[in-house]
Amino acid sequence: MSGKGKFRIEPFKHRVELDAQYAEKTWKILKDAIHEIHHRNASGLSFEELYRNAYNMVLHRHGDALYKGLVSLVTEHLKGVASEVNAERGEGFLGELIKRWDHHTHSMQMVRDILMYMDRIYVQPNGLKPVHDLGLQLWRDQVMRGPGIKSRVRDAVLGAINRERCGEKIDTHQLRAVTAMLMDLGVDCYAKDFEEPFLAATTEFYRAEAQRFLADSDCAQYLRKSEARLAEEQARVLEYMNPRTVKTAIARCEEELLTAPMRQMLSMPGSGLSAMLVGDRVDELKLVYTLFRRVPNGLRSVKEMVFEHVSGEGKALVTDPEKEKEPGEYVEGLLRMKDKYGGIVDAAFDGDRQFVNALHLSFENFVNLNNRSAEYLSLYVDDKLRRGLKGAEEDEVEATLDRAIVLFRFLREKDVFQKYYQEHLSKRLLGGRTTSDDAERSLVVKLKTECGYQFTTKFEGMFNDIRTSRDSMKAFRTHLEERAASGDLAMAAEPSSSGVTTDADGVKVKTSRGVSSYLGGVDLSVQVLTTGSWPVKGQNVGTCTLPPDMQAACDAYRDFYLGSHNGRRLVFLTQMGTAEVRYTFGDGVRRELSVSTYMACVLLLFNDAESLSYRDIAAATAIPGDDLRRSLQSLACVRGKNVLRKEPMSKDVNDDDVFSVNDNFTSKMIKVKISTVSAQRETEPEKKETRSRIEEDRKPQIEAAIVRIMKARRQLDHNSVVQEVTKQLSSRFIPSPADIKKHLESLIEKEFIERDRHDRKLYIYLA
What predicted TM-score, i.e. pTM, was given to this entire model? Predict the structure, then answer.
């Protein structure tokens, strides 16, 4: 042994003389020994002597004869083995094959030990196969691929697997031994002689199985059977096949059971994916997600089907004429859909982002199919903040507002919602109809978070005006008390009515108790509203002739306000006012009528007249025609609120109609609220006016966006400008390419930008 701890075989130190027949004699000894080994009679052999004989043959340059003799001997032996194996019939065939294979491998191990020196000294330098590999090659060529054996092995193995798939019990140890043998013979042998035929048979079996499942199962049953089959097949492959086959075999099963019949199976009437979604079958949907997550593009296809279903259901909802009659029910329907499918995505699809995005995209598409969705959402929020959240806990209020914001995110024209919300907020604030200031401000904060501070600037200005108006009224009260104390102002009797006003700069105004003693019995409360923050439609439209007492009270406030605010002009917008009028009817009960300022002006006329025609009332009050008709309808044509009598009786108000006080009016309530007759939603003319105002508001936004982009980029082609502008404004609305082009032309005329002289599609910013 050398100093490094390795053994070395060294030649004899003296010259060895060999006779001429040495090689033949030695080979005969080795041949006989190998023959005995093959026949399992090796117990009487001296392996040391055999090793020395093989060593001497190689040492004296007879390695070639030794190697060729071994090849010939083993080949001849294996031919006999092949004949014996092939002669075996029935179920004993595979058993005999495995038994002879075990004998062969054991024999070749002993032969390799005897010929170890030949392997190292002769085989390797000459590029020949070592004894072990030679034994495998010869077994493959002479036995496995011998006449009839290859096909019999394939048929026997595949037949056994097929029987097991059909429920029979088989000898899995035997199959494991066969596949291990094939793998030992080489990957190529395993793949060609077993794996490829197995995969082809697997494909055919599960293709037929899928058709059988489709014929006698509904979708859920199909999925459960497929899940069971996949689990069985995976266990089978892992048990007695090489691991390299697992992935491919399972992929073939998934292809035939899931991918190929997916559309047909998931579209089954009454049990497919749509039925699962409609019926909230979360467990079945979980199974869909679990199974199709395994196959390439499986979840993408399921996602597309979910998208199609939700889009179809949503489109049916937003285009349903019955739903449009009730904006609240319309929005509630959308919210129920969102809650339902959002819950399904979380519970069944594990909150998968691609399903969340698909759900959001489908909602965004169908919500915007109805161009009144923004209006209906604003009406829904208005109803909740006026009465729907009365007495609700803070958590419930926040949850309701959060659900509304979820739908708000889907709106592409958020500026349309802004217009309607501004209109409804103004009515709540001016009419004192909001249930909670905290809820109002919370919603404004949520809108600011979604769209930025510019989106809510006007809303916050409205709240600020209401707060400032309270301070102004305190100052006005103090002013009246000081005047009364100094003798400049006489005390008056009890109040009779109240009204609403606005200043010329866009300041609106309203009425409450506390100053009536100084204003001729009129209890005036004014809310001054800043121009631009409030949705005033025409500041000089909607005025009317107020009764003398009300006019005097308004004049007193005007003098006070203008005295402390130089440079302002105050205009009272009576169309936005409210009033409380007291009257004793025929039953002797004195009731308090809560009405609009227009209605109050009409009612006070009957202090001096028994009856009045429509023309008389119009001349005395100067109320615009449409507003006057609605006011008279509210006072005379609404059952339970008809404090006036109309002759002749009809739902419409005509120029020749005559009105008088209905002394027979009765009510269980002492305080009777009479609302102005009007549609909950906009009329067509109002709709056109609102749309026109929205388009006007968009013009400066589009032009400002173009200027910002061009200033930063200096020059840009037309398509890039359109993309950038759309991206910048998408949080408020989606401008059309035609509008962007129109405003580009406008900015060219204003010399903010110019076209390139050589490329007309290229714009250049002018400093």
Answer: 0.75
